[in-house]
Amino acid sequence: MKKVLKPLILVIVLALVPYVGVTYGKLDYLFAIIVPYAATAILVLGMIWRLIDWLRRPVPFRIPTTCGQEQSLDWIKTNPLECPSNPFMAAMRVLSEVFLFRSLFRNTRAELHSGPKLVYGSHKWLWLGGLAFHWSLLIVVIRHARFFFEAMPFPVQMIETMDSLLDVTVPTLFLTDAVALAAVTFLVLRRLQDEKMRLISLSTDYFPLFLIGAIAAIGVSMRYVTKVNIMPVKALTLSLAHFGFDAPEPIGALFYVHLFLVCVLLAYVPFSKLVHMGAIFLSPTRNLPNDSRAKRHVNPWNPDIKFRTYAEYEDEFREKMKKAGLPVEKQ
Amino acid sequence: MSNKYALKPEELKKEFEQKKPRIPKGNFAGKDWWDLPVEFRDGNWCFPAKPEVLDDLHFPNPRKWAATDKDWKLPAGWEKTIREGMKDRLKRFRSFKLFMDSCVRCGACADKCHFFLGTGDPKNMPVIRAELVRSVYRKDLTAFAGILTKFSGSRTLTAEVIKEWHMYFNQCTECRRCSVFCPMGIDTAEITMMARELLNLIGVNNNWILAPVANCNRTGNHLGIEPHTFEQNIMSLVDDIEDLTGVTVNPTFNRKGAKILFITPSGDVFGDPGVYTMMGYLLLFHHIGLDYTISTYASEGGNFGMFTSNEMMKKINAKMYHEAKRLGVDWILGGECGHMWRVVHQYMNTMNGPADFLKEPVSPITGTKFTNAKATKMVHIAEFTADLIKNGKLKLDPKRNDHLRTTFHDSCNVARGMGMLEEPRYVLNKVCNVFYEMPENTIREQTFCCGSGSGLNAEEFMDIRMRGGFPRASAVAHVREKHKVDSLVTICAIDRASLPPLMRYWNPGVTVYGLHELVGNALIMNGEKKRTEDLRENPMAGFEEDDDE
Q1: Considering chain A, what is the average pLDDT of its residues?
Q2: Are residues A214 and A249 in the same domain?
Q3: Alpha-carbon torsion A210, A216, A222, A225, what sign?
Q4: Is residue B353 in a domain?
Q5: With an 8 Å Cβ cutoff, is A200 touching chain B?
Q6: Pair A224, A324 in one domain
């Protein structure tokens, strides 16, 4: 399983870089200031470039995948979400994909049974795992906003309170920490367990999972096990939030591993499949209303094509047409 | 039902029994997909276009070759042609670019493809089908991924890759079922269309697609039927109708001043069982006294240009509006067809519109405005008929279809490229009494392709067709066992051509019908004689000659 080991080793090596750098090379400044700024710049500029790059390419045809009844005769019940007839419902459709993974919810699993016949079972694990993974990561990211503000913004505080409902550890256990780790484990295991998934998966599918898994695991261990000193961390993050360049107070090497891996992830986004976070909004099978018979969609490069006109056709077949009694334009 | 191009049904059944419950076939443990060989053999490839067909179309690289040849005689500099062609299409189609970039390989699409379910060939999983192109895209066209070749699954464009593209982009019927399940909305049909455009640039092609394209260009229809023969064929159906019902219907051809131009796939005019659907249309139009005409020039609803390139699709489609304008009709009515309706619904007005010389379609019988077609000005026959029935304009006796126990097959393009699901069901339920749905994962937006769509209905492709049609056949078998269904009703001309052999192979005894054939059976015509047989001259149940009820 070289495909799996290579990205695993890569993540381990990437984790060792700041550890060695900070412990033996005194490269705190590099990993605390320079790398985070560089990574953020790559993420922001990279994603802007990707979006512009996509948006400047035209959408020549209106090609929504219709997954429900279209709007037609007024007594026929339509399915406005799965077959939107206006831009507002198309936007709702995209949001249902982004926030609820609507299409994944349909997932089934096919099996061959005796007969032979095909049987389809409901298979929502991928939907559930994917949803848990993405939502918990989003909440974890929002919770981290506490490091970038002097006083915690109210919405962040609210999310934190909700996230710590299960108050069983000291410090309080965040549900999303557990969910994120479980979900990332599930997503790795499902790629390894199924023969189809093993064949489909590339190293670039495992790499971000290992990277996110490592970031989460180190984050959790800093909070619950090694208990990193939070004061210099907050001083650093506040400084970063204000575009400061002051050298940080000493922080444990583990923190730098966490931070560096986050930076790798940020910089990796625009150049990898992780661009799907932007692409999903643009998918022309989802974000267009199914109204192409009611409203003309314009193709900016609509080519001029010479087709065979009726006149040319009649010229070839005129005698035969006359004989058959078909009307002709010219005698 | 077998020939040298397909296994006997028992042999294929045995293959499935042996690997169940697994779908994939063979052992590929420890291998990467790009290590799996591409093997052309009888039944899994379509004959390439004949040189004269390519000459006719001014397409490149006419030559005699076969997919089983070692050397495909690709033109000099073909690599450059493909690369430039890809770059150009990535620029013109946001869809193509996005679908190259956004796949996360979650695998949701894997077991949604009828070709994967039927062949078990892992490269028929939509995700890998797309990776066949993506791997080249990464290597050649994206700066970073190319550096780490194996890591990112990217590879160099070679003649072997072209063979692989030819194999697997001709084992995709552009049915879009995978795109229903994809969380990113990636549509493999779009990628297949691009790949086929690219392959056509270097003369890697399919005669079953390009010969109809050439015919359609010259004579107006796929079969190359000249105007007088086209007319004669419909007139012979008129005679059949007279024999069966005693009613003389009067279709007109190329008639200026008609209110409506009717266009249907030429398969309805020439193919069995399509002709019975045509008889249904003719009876219907006569019944309501529709002022319509049929064109011998725009005599094809289907558009195999769609399976070739967007330019060819536009060229062939242009005839519809051109003819409607010449004849001065108000609007166009379209017959039952799958990909024709994807073209009409999603492409026609963009490519060849605006159709401002036509009027917004209004049913002359009911006065209903078809506002959903107000720009394209083309109405689907199922919408048209559903509206007639709803308004009580048809005299129907559904008992005349009591000899049929029906189920309905949604055609892919109408379901997933248009969203027309209810109209045909409404009509069907009004013209027959016995109707059962197939399982929900196999109908409506989740419908399974017949296995032969998008120009793959070739005889020499029988093995893949029978495998690709297996999911559909399996669903039919289900309602046959449970409800004794014996009639598969469709609204697609390709289905009417491809499902009969599929049923003979998997479900002998199940017959394929067009929706309007059943409408024709049920219509009580003015001045008709006592009808005892349906349009196929099969006896109807309860209408026997001596029945004196």
Answers
A1: 94
A2: yes
A3: negative
A4: yes
A5: yes
A6: no
- Say if the Cβ atoms of A273 and B90 lie within 8 Å: no
For chain A positions 123-162, those within 8 Å of chain B (CB to CB) are: 126, 130
Task: List CB contacts (< 8 A) between A63 and chain B.
Answer: 95, 187, 190, 346, 417
What region does B120 belong to: left with phi over 0, alpha with psi -120 to 50, or beta?
Answer: left
Q: What's the whole-number average pLDDT of chain B?
A: 95
Contact partners, residue A299, CB within 8 Å, separation at least 6: A58, A60, A61, B350, B351
Distance from CA of B351 to the nearest CA of A (A): 6
On whether both A80 and A158 belong to a single domain, the answer is: yes
Across the interface, of A68, A201, A308, the residue whose CB is closest to B419 is A68
Interchain CB distance below 8 Å, A116 and B13: yes
Angle, CA of B441, B447 and B453, to the nearest 5°: 150
For every residue of B287-311, DSSP letters joined together read: HHT--EEE-SSS-----GGGGT-HH
Tell me the pLDDT tens digit for each residue of B505-535.
Answer: 999 999 999 999 999 999 999 999 999 999 9
Q: Are residues A192 and A107 in the same domain?
A: yes
State whether A314 and A237 are in the same domain. Answer: no
Amino acid at B434: V
Residue B307 · residue B196 · CB < 8 Å = yes
Least CB-CB distance to B349: which of A292, A303, A325? A292
Residue B544 maps to a domain: no
Residue at A58: amino acid letter: P
Is A201 touching B (CB cutoff 8 A)?
yes
Q: Is A92 on the interface with B (CB under 8 A)?
A: no
Domain membership of residue A63 as a residue range: 2-300
A284 and A318 fall within a common domain = no
In this structure, is residue B470 part of a structural domain? yes
* Peptide linkage before B273 cis (omega within 30 of 0): yes
Q: How far from B128 is each of A60, B153, B196, CA to CA, in Å? A: 26, 11, 16
**Cα distance from B192 to chain A (closest Cα, Å)?**
14
- Give the nearest chain B residue to A282 (CA atoms): B98
Nearest CA in chain A to B325: A310
pLDDT at A248 over 80: yes
Torsion angle of C-alpha atoms B348, B350, B356, B360, degrees rounded to 10: 60
Let me know whether B226 and B171 are in one domain. no
Non-local (6+) Cβ contacts of B50 within 8 A are: B207, B211
Band of pLDDT at residue A4, cut at 50, 70 and 90: very high
CB atoms within 10 A of CB B402: 16
Which positions in chain B touch A116 (Cβ < 8 Å)?
A: 13, 16-17, 20, 474
What domain range is B368 assigned to?
213-522
Residues 6+ apart with CB under 8 A from A279: A54, B98, B101, B102, B184
Q: What is the pLDDT of residues B86-134, one digit of tens each?
A: 999 999 999 999 999 999 999 999 999 999 999 999 999 999 999 999 9
**Pairs of CB atoms within 8 A across A/B:** 331
A212 touches chain B (CB under 8 A): no
Do residues B409 and B489 touch, judged by C-beta distance below 8 A?
yes
At A160, is the pLDDT very low, low, confident or very high (cuts 50, 70, 90)?
confident
- Hey, of A99, A283, A304, A306, which one would you mutate to test binding to chain B, going by the most B CBs within 10 A of its CB? A283
Judged by CB atoms closer than 8 Å, whether chains meet at A103 and B418 is answered as no
Is pTM beyond 0.90 here? yes
**Residues A128 and A82 grouped into a single domain:** yes
Instruction: Quote the pLDDT of residue A158.
Output: 86
Shortest CA distance to B34 belongs to which of B192, B170, B153?
A: B153
Domain count, chain B: 2
Query: Residue A163 pLDDT > 90, yes or no?
Result: no
Q: What is the pLDDT of residue B393?
A: 98
* Same domain flag for B466 and B324: yes
Chain A residues lying within 8 Å of B322, measured CB to CB:
307, 309-310
